[in-house]
Amino acid sequence: MKPRAQSMLTALTILAIGACVAMIGCARSDTIRIEGSAPSAAKVAGTPAAEDSGTGAPEVNVVSLLRADPHVREKKELRACSPEDGGTYPVEASYAALTGKESTDLVVNVSTCTDGVGVGSYVYRAVGSRYVNVFADEQPPVWAQASGRQLEVTRQDYGASDPVDQPSGETVTTYEWNDGMFEKIGSTSTDYGK
Question: Cα-flanking dihedrals φ and ψ of residue 150, to 5°?
């Protein structure tokens, strides 16, 4: 490859990585940004959890929730990133209706501060005035999201010589809530054809 073409490819790769990190997002201080359509009066800060009378969604400080959860092994990433970015946490959460009719479940993703690689994905179900962990995947790189009433977990696939910014493909595994647990219902792999 010619040096000029290689420079352009490198610049585009850096730009793409920056865009991905920006989309992952973080939040300020002890709270995180809640994505998607959250219940109208739901809060992400404050403990202890208290039921919101309008929606039934408990209040929650997601970082504290993750730190207190014995099922979360990836606690080393639960720290504020550099002061230059305002001390944000590499955590993103969104409300979803995966385990019931109400949009009170939390889908939480934790990534690294440095490169935005997903290191842990979790689903918390609202039970009374607290959240209970009902799903965890801590095999990086991983990212979870709700798709309707299904949970989709995306994992980048790497060959032995693939650099971190150039995976060979991805696998999306789909889960559905059934009999009090998430059940795998399908998986789709995409080869990027490098």
Answer: -110, 150
CA-to-CA distance for 18 and 20, rounded, in angstroms? 5
CA 37 to chain centre: 16
Q: Is residue 20 part of a domain?
A: no
DSSP letter (8 states) at residue 180:
T
Q: Which tens digits make up the pLDDT trace of 35-51?
A: 333 332 233 332 333 34
Whether residue 146 is contained in a domain is answered as: yes
Confidence of residue 56 (pLDDT cuts 50, 70, 90): low
Give the C-alpha separation, 39 to 41, whole Å: 6
For 11, the 3-state DSSP assignment is: helix
Which range marks the domain in which residue 162 is found?
Answer: 25-191
CA distances from 2 to 11, 12, 18, 162 (A): 14, 15, 24, 21
Q: What are φ and ψ of residue 113, in 5° steps? A: -70, -40
Contact 63, 57 (CB under 8 A): no
ω before 70 within 30° of 0 (cis)? no
